[in-house]
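Sanity check

After download, print the first record. It should look like this:
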Amino acid sequence: MNLRLHQKRKDFEALPLRHQLLLPRFVDHLSDVQHCVEHNNEIIKIIVENTDSMFVNRDDYNGPEKVSKRSKVNNGVGKLDMEKVLTTVKQFVRDWSQDGISERQACYGPIIDEIQRRFPVEECNRDSVRVLVPGAGLGRLAFEIASLGYSCQGNEFSLFMLFASHFVLNRSVEVDCFTIYPWAHQFSNLRSSSQQIRPVTIPDTDPSGLREDADFSMVAGDFLEVYKKTAVWDCVATCFFIDTAHNILAYVETIYKILKPGGFWINLGPLLYHFENTAKEPSIEIAYDVLRQVILDFSFVMLREETIHTSYLQDQFSMLKYEYDCVFFVCQKPLHANETTHHTTTKDNEEQ
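Expected structure tokens:
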């Protein structure tokens, strides 16, 4: 980023003097941006310094991600890795700041409401209901589910996300104890210069506020590799997750296997297949109507389907906004499910 800022200063100095005079605050603003970037860097250092003890088996753990050898930039850090770091910083906004409330309400709200609907407090012992959240990111959805008294485990593959979630969940001493500048790295579609250097404080709730007997955990690793034991989960909640698969059919198959008979799969998200345009990475992309039939072929019963409009990692003040028409569905594994065969006939849109 310092190289980018240096280049921007050079570009400004190359302007005709009459044009430079029309931008009296340009250089000062770049200095403000550099201050924000340096502050973010200090936060990242703190995050990394707190990772030594986060893995129980850390001596045997090589990590799911390696530093990219592609597009090397300053200090040997790959461009792809830098993009992941910046995405993780923005993920703090979505999951752990006041600014992310609207996105969380749109994405996490329907899932949480559905879990409470399927496992109401008056009909079950919540701490005996086991909920799995694959692709948990920075852990807010799993945290909120555990806060309601359910036994909840988040699973995450990305080391970037794992480091950040460990930091916010275990090193936050109070509400709004850390400040970040998530938009300092963006120079386009700004309504004002102040928007670029706007601070965001995290976390907006105290992660240590969970009751002492809460059953909440985060597990590192590939979803398909970690979860092989059959019929152990009452609910699997996926949010912006299923399109991260190389083979989405393997995700459906695994979710079916690990759910208890009568268990629920609750999903919300788009189908922005992550490996679609990645060289040397296998990727199977199918439309939702095809995916839906696959889900039914695995003997799931489709209980609910609708479209939910939401953004993702969006700067609410930006001149450019992306919105997804996400599919939200609720499926149930039959009570008398056969673990080795799948039936192609299911009841469509049947309510429990």
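If your output differs, re-run the checksum step. Summary of this record's structure: The mean pLDDT is 90.
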